[in-house]
Design brief:
By secondary structure, the chain is an all-beta fold. It has a 26-stranded antiparallel β-barrel. Strands 1, 2, 3, 4, 5, 6, 7, 8, 9, 10, 11, 12 and 13 form a 13-stranded antiparallel beta sheet that branches.
């Protein structure tokens, strides 16, 4: 036996290149791992991190034998080879110079620079690296994926074959290192990787859960990791059982036409109603892309159209189809184009045939932002826009229309008779122009910003309050919504100049003087019986001062307190709020920590503040270390005179009954309170509230969340809005009472190992009912989450009334999830 030593092998460059390229091409390239064959061009002589220059091989073994008769070299006993920052270990490595065959036997292990480790009992490669075999192959890929095979055959540079293979992303050993069944795995008699097609094909594939076969496919395929995208089946999107659609299953299939063009066909199969065909078309156009999502069916309306007086589903009318068969569907599309340069443009197209279509077919991700403008929940917007932005300027151009899916008046007995918001009462907006320009040089030591805007709004149908002011809607005027009466049209142009300067004194006092001046021009038409068309101009200016003085006290031991008092003084002429000007952009105002100290707190330009105002507030922040901290903000504004132009009529009350929806009309504003507490890394709370001067709560939101382990958590959230006066108006009357009060709860608790329960629910405290609730059993580990449970939907939006059924959610690591 020869002593352990380092040997220089004959033809070292040729042998090293074959050994390295063969191992990597076979084990990495054939299995789509991040490695490639060694470049055969001229090599640099710079040393790598392993201390070797390209073309060098370091070999260490207990015994190295060279046979002149067989023209081969063999290394045995703890063979260690190092080359190009890779390491190989084996019991024996043989290279045959005549045949070019490389053979590694016994505990073969290859460690790549990225940390990937490949194992085999036997590895053989031919001289041209076009064929080879591995026996007892195993590897661990990124993300904890394990791949094992009894044998691997590389038939060509493009095709590799794994026999009796097992794939799983789950742990295969317990905490003590003992073998265990993976949570889920795919076992196949044969797996073929076709690199030309960039796909992996399975024959006799068996899906196992906990080692138990649950699903079998004679043929199964998916794209390999070298393919960016490829056609094939995706994870199911829907798998549930409801009393409306019955058993529903949605299976998407991806068609890839090019690297920048694809189509997803996703039919929803239902046992009680006709199928719904969903399509998603995507295409990239270099500087931009288009995404069109649509669905179609030929079906009648369906659900529970009649309820008893106590709100219970009538047995004779349960889950029926009614009305005529019609073409029904939806489209949710968008496009965005960003060319080189300051300009970009885009569009969105959102429409649906039925007001309740998305609810009845459980269509998700509907109310997403798809363009520059957004209009809130249960409203669809179709728009076109263009933007130009530079370092010191901005220009936005747009136009849009809105389709509403909101219920204007609920029917407590027959949900099919719910009255929805009339689209004709919503404005058609266009053009809408917004511009901003910041002067590059300071003026009087401060920043100067110029804003300009213009908009045109047209309505097909008349709508009164809250668009028209109570001073314009005299007794005897048309009701708030009058069919057949033309809507009021508005055109506005505004120009604003804003100057601000920040001064910080040596004592740390932050002083920010500001001046804001604005001119507005309005043209009002189609007033009809309410008056003549009007052209209105107005000028408004505000001068003021913001003051902030943060104070910090360090108590040691990681404890500190910061107190930051703040104040604002603002002086303006009295507001000229012409009652003929409709309120299109300032109907809703929520006072908060971020809006209280604005010079003009309204989000739009139709309403504005005048007179003298004083705003005071304080923020207190305490930090106890170890992730424990708390903050509290308290603020309020005062004005010299009341502003009755902010008042609105009380819905359903006698004419002339007004209330303040803003919290700013009186001599003192609502209180603004917000807080946030981190009790520990596992328990926190936050909230904000707007409290009227008499102590009544106008609106608030607060939440408490706890997480006592990685998988166990709970959250409770309370949301309330009591902006309208409490005149005992039936909350079922929709817009006649905008008040709402919700309680949301959500949580999960693991009970035994990976098994637990999870649930979530929303309670409408105004209606005194649980609008949505679900509870289920959960299995959750590192590579699988399975949830099955019961779900009840009582939102009362659709014609179907209450809906309930069983839902199933499945999330498999690396393969995706159902919703």
């Amino acid at each position: 036996m020869m002593p352990s030593r380092t040997a220089s092998l004959p033809e070292p460059d040729r042998l090293r290149q074959r050994l390295l390229a063969g191992a990597c091409a076979f084990l990495l390239g054939a299995l789509a791992l991040p490695a490639s064959a060694q470049d055969s061009g001229p090599a640099s002589r710079e040393r790598g991190s392993d201390g070797l220059t390209p073309g060098s091989l370091y070999l260490d073994a207990g015994e190295i034998e060279q046979s002149q008769q067989d023209n081969r070299i063999t290394a045995r006993q703890g063979v260690l080879a190092r080359f190009d920052e890779r390491f190989m270990r084996a019991d024996e490595v043989t290279y045959d110079f005549d045949s070019g065959l490389i053979t590694a036997r016994g505990n073969t292990e290859l460690v790549n620079p990225d940390g990937t480790v490949l194992y085999a009992d036997l590895l053989e490669l031919d001289e041209d690296l076009r064929a080879g075999i591995a026996v007892g192959f195993a590897t661990r890929l990124e993300g904890g994926i394990k791949l094992m095979a009894a044998s691997v055959v590389r038939r060509s540079e493009m095709v590799s074959e794994l026999n009796y293979a097992l794939f799983t992303p789950c742990p295969i050993c317990d905490e003590n290192g003992n073998p265990k069944e993976p949570t889920w795995s795919i076992q196949a008699q044969q797996v073929v990787q076709d690199r030309e097609r960039r796909a992996i094909f399975y024959r006799n594939a068996v899906f196992r859960v906990g080692g138990v076969p649950v699903f079998w496919l004679p043929v199964f395929w998916h794209p390999d990791e070298s393919a960016e995208r490829a056609s094939g089946f995706l994870m199911p999107r829907t798998l549930d059982l409801s009393d409306r659609r019955g058993l529903s299953y949605e299976q998407p299939y991806l068609f890839v036409f090019s690297p920048s063009h694809d189509l997803v066909v996703s039919p929803q199969i239902n046992t009680r109603v006709n199928p719904l065909l969903n399509l998603t078309w995507r295409r990239h156009f270099g500087p931009g892309q288009v995404n069109i999502r649509t669905g179609y069916t030929w079906e009648r309306n369906f659900g529970d159209p009649d309820l008893n007086n106590d709100g219970v589903v009538s047995p004779d009318e349960e889950n029926v189809r009614f009305g005529p068969y019609e073409h029904r569907g939806y489209v949710l599309g968008s496009g965005a184009f960003d060319h080189s340069g300051p300009w970009r443009w885009g569009f969105s197209l959102e429409r649906v045939s039925d007001k309740t279509f998305f609810d009845r077919y459980d269509i998700t991700d509907v109310y997403e932002r798809r363009g520059l403008y957004e209009v809130g929940e249960r409203r669809l917007i179709s728009q076109v826009y263009a933007e130009r932005q530079t370092r010191s300027s901005y220009l936005g151009l747009g136009a849009f229309t809105v389709q509403s899916l909101r219920v204007a008046q609920f029917d407590p007995v027959t949900p099919v008779d719910n009255i929805f918001e009339d689209d004709g009462t919503l404005p058609i907006v266009g053009p809408l122009i917004e511009a901003r320009w910041d002067l590059e040089r300071p003026v009087a030591g401060g920043r100067v910003r110029v804003r300009a805007s213009a908009v045109s709004l047209e309505r097909r149908d008349y709508v009164g309050s809250p668009v028209l002011s109570p001073g314009f809607i005299a007794p005897g005027a048309p009701p708030p919504a009058t069919p057949g009466l033309p809507g009021v049209d508005t055109r506005r142009a505004s120009l604003e100049l804003d100057w601000r300067r920040v001064i910080i004194t040596p004592q740390g006092l932050r002083i920010e003087p500001f001046v804001v001046a604005r001119a507005d021009a309005y043209q009002i038409s189609d007033l009809g019986p309410l008056g003549e068309d009007a052209s209105i101009g107005r000028v408004h200016a505000t001068a003021g001062l913001d003051l902030r003085y943060p104070l910090i006290r360090d108590f040691g031991a990681g404890t500190s307190v910061i107190i930051e008092p703040m104040a604002q003084i603002a002086l303006s002429p009295d507001a000229r709020l012409d009652p003929r000007i409709p309120n299109e952009d300032s109907q809703f105002l929520e006072l908060s920590e971020s809006t209280l100290f604005r010079a003009d707190r309204f989000p739009g330009r139709d309403l504005y503040e005048g007179g003298a105002r004083l705003t005071l507030g304080t923020r207190i922040t305490a930090d106890w270390g170890a992730g424990r901290q708390a903050s509290l903000f308290l603020g309020r504004s005062f004005r010299s005179e009341r502003e009755d132009g902010f008042l609105q009529p009380v819905a359903g009350a006698p004419p002339g009954t007004l209330f303040d929806p803003t919290g700013l009309a009186g001599g003192s504003s609502d209180w603004v309170v917000s807080y946030e507490v981190e009790f520990s890394r596992h328990l926190n709370a936050w909230g904000h509230a707007q409290i009227e001067p008499d102590g009544d709560l106008r609106r608030a939101e607060t939440a408490l969340s706890a997480r006592w382990s990685a998988r166990n958590f709970a959250e409770v959230r309370y949301i309330v809005d009591k902006s309208d006066p409490n005149l005992n108006i039936d909350p079922l009357l929709g817009p006649l009472s905008r008040n709402y009060e919700f309680l949301q709860v959500e949580g999960q608790q693991m009970l035994a190992g990976d098994w637990g329960v999870a649930g979530r629910a929303i309670s409408d405290l105004e209606l005194r009912t649980w609008t949505r609730s679900e509870i289920g059993v959960v299995f959750d580990d590192d590579c699988l989450r399975f949830e099955i449970g019961y779900r009840r939907d009582n939102t009362r939006v659709g014609p179907g009334g209450v809906s309930e059924g069983v839902y199933v959610r499945l999330n498999l690591a690396t393969l995706g999830s159902t919703r």
